[in-house]
Amino acid sequence: MQIELNQPGALLAPDGQLVQIGWSRQPLLDCNLEAAQFYPLRQLQRLRIKRWDYYAVFTPRRFFSATIADLGYAGNLFVYVMDLETGELHEEGLVIPFGNGIQLPRNSTEGTSHFKNRTVSLDFLVYATQRRISVFWPAFHDGRGIQAEINLICPPGYESMTIVIPIAKKRFYYNRKINCLPAEGSIQYGDSIEMLNPTTSMGSLDWGRGVWEYQSYWNWASSSGFLPDGRTFGLNFGCGFGDLSKAGENALILENRLHKLEQVKFDYTTGDYMKPWKFCDSDGRLDLTFTPFKERIAKTKLGIIDSEVHQMFGHYNGKAVADNGEVIFLKDLIGFAEGHHARW
């Protein structure tokens, strides 16, 4: 039932409706959000449009993440870092009224995401064969400070999981997730500097644009790593948002090639997220157990914004079947899975 898109074009028609609905291996559609029409007064449209760039990087030592988001009526910036050995986790964020000063590009294939004030500077830059994450936050963790200069290798031929789906009658979601991006550069956290090697460090991008319902819930699972034979392998699963009948974001990523899955079931215990999660799919190609070792709870309660995410870090074990029938056995593949409630 999944529809693969192959034709480039505009995301939205002049009347604000989606031109195409489906999934693709590359971003084909121009994200013309200026054509959105879901309020009678056009000047109110921007207050409900959500845009974000979320980068995540696993190194042998730590997990690092940085986000620039514009929720329409407020911007949201956050950075967090976790020591994979000790489980020490620290996160800081800023809420920016009406997203003032936040710059986000029109499409995921080019441009710069940027914010800078007197205390923090975040820049995400897109080049022909790589993406660069630049973070400077001297006051992070009570003055411990964090600075990151990371290059993610991303040639144009790399396939990514891109979906275009409707949400209710007038809302929509355009999302691109790129897994398995070899990472090089450095992360300085306090007095510690870690040099990233692309043979051991891996990054990913969650790029989202759209108009959501005020009250939303979703699950997301992701991993980017290496198989015992050295090949790169990642996974991306998601559910709980919008109309997924024609396009879902469930896929395996083997050597930067997408292996599309149909429906994937998230089987976990709400309220006790540290219990093992199970993942299986509708075609019998997936049998995975995700065992968490760390829970990140992030809550935002600020006026009309009320968000709570339980992001679990853990290991995937089990098997998955590629498009050509190859059975891939996973052992302690590091990644995360989450449940997210939001009123935004």
What does this protein look like?
This protein has one domain (9-343): AttH-like domain (AttH-like fold, Beta Barrel). The chain is 1% helix and 58% strand. It is built from one helix and 24 strands. It has one helix at residues 140-143; strands spanning 9-10, 22-24, 29-30, 49-58, 62-70, 74-83, 89-97, 112-116, 121-126, 130-137, 146-153, 161-167, 171-189, 192-196, 202-211, 215-226, 232-239, 251-254, 257-260, 264-267, 277-281, 286-302, 305-321, 327-343. The strands form three sheets. Strands 2, 4, 5, 6, 7, 8, 9, 10, 11, 12, 13, 14 and 15 form a 13-stranded antiparallel β-sheet that branches. Strand 12 and strand 13 (171-189) form a beta hairpin. The chain is globular, with a radius of gyration of 19 Å. It starts with 8 loop residues before the first strand and ends with a strand.
Tell me briefly what this model is:
This protein has 344 residues and is mostly beta strands.
Considering the chains and any ligands shown, give keywords for the structure.
about 350 residues, AttH-like fold, nine-stranded antiparallel β-sheet, 1 helix, about 60% strand, mainly beta, 13-stranded antiparallel β-sheet
Secondary-structure blueprint of this entry?
Layout lengths: L8 E2 L11 E3 L4 E2 L18 E10 L3 E9 L3 E10 L5 E9 L14 E5 L4 E6 L3 E8 L2 H4 L2 E8 L7 E7 L3 E19 L2 E5 L5 E10 L3 E12 L5 E8 L11 E4 L2 E4 L3 E4 L9 E5 L4 E17 L2 E17 L5 E17 L1
Parallel strand pairs: 1-3
Antiparallel strand pairs: 2-12, 4-5, 4-15, 5-6, 6-7, 8-9, 9-10, 10-11, 11-13, 12-13, 13-14, 13-15, 16-17, 16-24, 17-18, 18-19, 20-21, 21-22, 22-23, 23-24
